[in-house]
Structures are given as C-alpha cells and as structure tokens.
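Example 3.2
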Amino acid sequence: MSIRNNACFSMLVMGIALYLAMSNLAWANKDLGGQAYYQSESNHGGDDRHHENFNNRRHTQVGKFGYGLDLSNFNELDSISTDDNYAEVVLEDSILGNVYIEQGSSIAGNKAKVVQSDGVGSEAGIWQYGGDNTALITQTGKFNKAYIAQYGYGNKAWINQAGNNNTAAIIQYGYGSSLSINQTGSNNKAIIVDNGGSNYGISQNGNDYVAIVGGYGINVYVTQN
C-alpha cells in the first residue's frame, strides 16, 4: 500500500472520466424540472429520448444519496468537526493496494477517508479542492478502482465497491451535491460528473456501464405505496 500526495492526480481522474465517458453504453442528461432522463448511446443525438425508470437499465438502479448503502458509515465521517482538513486511511487484510489523498485547498473543512478490506491490488484516490467537502471510498475485493475529485464546496461523495474489477469515478463542481456509487459483483463501470445541487445514488450489481455527465440539480425522489 502506498499513500501519495501528487498534483498530477487531477490528470489521472480526468483521464478516467474521459475513458469511461467515451466507452460507456448509457448517458443521463439534466432536463426539465431537474429530473434525470436516460438515453442509450444508440439513440444519442436523436429525438428518441424518454423518461425511464433506471431500474430497467440492466443491473443499475438509482435512488437518493446512499442508495443501497448503510449511511451510518458516511455520517460518522461527515460528523467529524475540524478546524483544518481531515484525512484517514484504514487497511484491513488488504495487500498490493494504492491510496492517494490530496487536500490542496487553503479552505478548511474537507474530510476524506479510504477503507480497503480483504482486498488485493485495489486503488483509491481522493482529491479535494474547495471547502467543507466529504469523500468516502470503501473497497472490498480485488483490483477495484475508485476516484473522487471535489472542486466546489459542501459536496458529499461515497463510492463503495464490494466485488472485483470495478471502476468508478465521481467528479463534483459547484455546491451542495450528494452523490454515491455502490458497486457489487464484478466488472461494473460508473462515472458521475456533476455541476452542483444534485442528490442521487447509483447501485450496480455486475457487468454494467453508466455515465451521468454534466448534470446540475438532479434530484431523485422515491415514493413507495
């Protein structure tokens, strides 16, 4: 395991984002009312866009922030009070992994945590500029990759990976977004690039690809009767 503070990490994150965005099979765009509209790549650029339940998207489901996860783990990190920036790395039976954390802002209140457990060869990176951002990456399994970059203020992000060969990235600009990716199973890829004010979580359970790029104010509300 290695911990690195590297200004070039931003290029790595953006490279991951570009790779996933170019190769993904699905896109979601912000539309009227701040709702998420789904559009397959085969229809991209056409008029056949429709409002669709993400539960029909292969093995991807969507809900509010923390969808499919126990929020107590994130809330514990988010509740830490600090006059500076805070970073924590927890390793539990994890080997050959890499952890990158960079907190480059002069504004305090950023909190970052990476937990790797029962893993082999996984990589996690958190890059925080701005203030009052919270980022958590939790990984179990082999050869997972997770990246969070936060450029704005008051953003929250959580990537959880429990499986093998999963890749995920969250990039947050602007203010007040709460975004999560939960990947179980293997061979999932997910990318979220958000411009602020959004609240949703994605859950994948194997062999799926999804990208939500350039969203702003996307909110998911779940009503069950």
